[in-house]
Amino acid sequence: MRIVAFNYRDIPNFPQSTVHGHAGRLVFGTLKGRPCVCMQGRFHLYEGYPIQKITMPMRIFKLLGVETVILTNAAGGLNQDYKVGDIMIIKDHLNMPGFAGNNPLAGPNEERFGVRFPCMSDAYDRELQQLALDVGLELGFSDFLREGVYCVLGGPSFETIAECRMLHKLGADAVGMSTVHEVIVARHCGMRVFALSLITNKAVMDYDSEEKANHEEVLQTGKQRAEQLERLVSTIITRLEHNNNFA
Ligand SMILES: O=P(O)(O)O[C@H]1O[C@H](CO)[C@@H](O)[C@H]1O
């Protein structure tokens, strides 16, 4: 397989990755014969970037002709049935920064990308969710494959116990600091979206608990499930309709 990779620092106006574990490269290649572009590292609000900068890659992908975006993230499990290592197909989201007016589409609307008031009730493509469930079953992943609601916060501090309890009551199954802004911009410009959370740690919900959320555990769980996540995503891609480019 031939790949061509660009360091983010060599791409004019591209943000830089500042998070440990994010390589900071844009990689072009083929996955099982399908052309794709892959971000090795994304951007977060807590890095200090304006929300429009965080999501700029989505519009670049649109201009490159990408039709389907596949997003993955690490997240803390709020749903008490979830275990560390579970993979959650995201079926919906809670956009907490958005409640406070921090939405990547705020400001003048870019009409060449999409409408002023885009619908978000269909943000996560239902056919792709079903495809992921089918592929998960085939691969023998059903025991650790879930479907749920992802909630984004600004970070970088992890949540307090009271915050975790509140988010769970509001209907969130997992919490993280990314993805939702990218989804909003990708949907605004009409790309299909599929997203997965790897439950890297359990959100602490109990004052008697000795557990503490930490980035090392997040990275470690990511490494442990990397191979299965790769198989799941690459098999999903092979089943996408022909001529469907993706990021
Ligand atoms: O959402 P991704 O980028 O996968 O990473 C998650 O893990 C980091 C915290 O450990 C935060 O960046 C959080 O958003």
Structural class category: alpha/beta
Let me know the largest β-sheet: 5 strands, mixed, barrel
Any idea of the CATH class?
Alpha Beta
Write down the CATH topology.
Rossmann fold
Strand order of the largest sheet: 4-7-6-5-8
As a percent range, the share of helical residues equals: 25-40%
Low-confidence parts: none
How many distinct beta strands?
8
Percentage of β-strand residues:
15-25%
CATH architecture: 3-Layer(aba) Sandwich
Give the CA-CA distance, first to last residue: 17 Å
What is the chain-wise order of helices and strands? EEEHHEEHHEHEHEH
CATH superfamily: Nucleoside phosphorylase domain
Number of helices: 7
Bound molecules: 1-O-phosphono-alpha-D-ribofuranose
Mean pLDDT across all amino acids: 95
Radius of gyration: 17 Å
Shape: globular
Q: How many domains is the backbone divided into?
A: 1
Structure description:
It contains seven helices and eight strands; from the N terminus they run E-E-E-H-H-E-E-H-H-E-H-E-H-E-H. It has helices spanning 51-54, 56-64, 96-99, 126-139, 161-169, 180-188, 215-239, and strands spanning 4-7, 25-31, 34-40, 68-77, 87-95, 145-152, 174-176, 192-202. It has a five-stranded mixed beta barrel, surrounded by four helices. The protein has a three-stranded antiparallel β-sheet with strand order 1-2-3. The chain is an alpha/beta fold. It has a single domain (68-242), classed as Rossmann fold (3-Layer(aba) Sandwich), CATH 3.40.50. This is Purine nucleoside phosphorylase.
